[in-house]
Amino acid sequence: MTAKILIYDTIIVGGGVTGFASAMYAARLGLKVMVIAESLGGTIALANAVENYPGFINITGFELAEKIRNHAMEYPIDLEEDRVVHIKRDENSLFVLTTMDRKTIHSKTIIFATGTKLKELNVPGEKKFLKRGVHYCALCDGGFYKGLNVAVIGGADSACMDALLLTQYAAKVYIIYRKDRLRPEPVTYNRIVKHPKIEIIYKTNVKEIHGDTKIDYLQLDNFHNGSDKLKIDGVFIAIGHTVLSDLAKELSVELNDKNEVVTDKNAQTNIPGFFAAGDVTNGMFKQVITGVGEGVHAAYSSYRYVTGTKFEYY
Ligand code: NDP
User: Fold this and answer.
1) pTM of the model
2) Residue ranges in the chain modelled with pLDDT below 50
3) Ligand 1 atom 32: the closest Cα is on which residue?
4) Ligand 1, residues 46, 136, 158, 259: which to mutate, most atoms within 8 A of Cβ?
């Protein structure tokens, strides 16, 4: 006699806010749900301040992620902290997931919410000074720079929010940006340009992070105040993210030229039963609030797929 296998209605791959919002709705809709993720929190957990999630005037990304996860876990959701290394489809159209810990898990649907990982600059000195001068999280490491000079690399929301946070500690904060106008949310831009501690260095890239036992200067590819060397004590890299869509690619899920999973407004991909939500998708506006909303759509689409019902959820 063959052993009966446990089949989930939906497995959510990803432990960020999108994944847990999706899990909560799927569980409320009565689906048997698992969330599987190597680490919990997602990239928003590194954000020092979220000021645009309705209901919270200002909250750290970590706290918001924790609140959403704790809320979800009030429902019957199985949580597996493990890395999915492979997803395939068997002859019964079930998705079969294999994990790093050599577990095999079966599900009728997948909600793919793997998000992104932080991009590295890939210049000499970046690895050498990691956590000893080179950082990717201003919230975590900004406090080491009281009264010192720091630089932030990047020109969008993360870089600008990091620069503002760092002004609480540092004497001076440079933003080094490769183009000629920063592009965060306008409200953030206005705060940056007025801030007395912030100086923006435009049209410049960092070629090397130089130093012996600690960082001495950044080698720039352009001159600033007559020098192409910028003396600083620490550097925060905030140059965006790489989309984590490799597992979907293996299943022939359609990706666009940025490797984002192509979805419709109901979070459906080209593979029936495989839904995707949040930063891993081709959504135009990537915010916590949009990820959460897309996750909820994915849960409902999964519910409709599993039950075959036309039930409208008002
Ligand atoms: P983005 O991808 O939006 O921006 C990355 C920035 O880094 C851009 O300015 C880019 O330059 C620059 N950059 C990329 N690669 C390099 C490189 N190799 N060398 C130098 N500069 C480089 O990433 P973010 O992390 O800022 O934002 C990601 C998403 O998260 C966005 O949608 C953002 O709106 C959202 N977000 C929301 C927050 C909030 O709601 N509070 C806070 C933080 C992020 P270029 O401009 O030339 O492309």
Assistant:
1) 0.81
2) 314
3) 286
4) 158
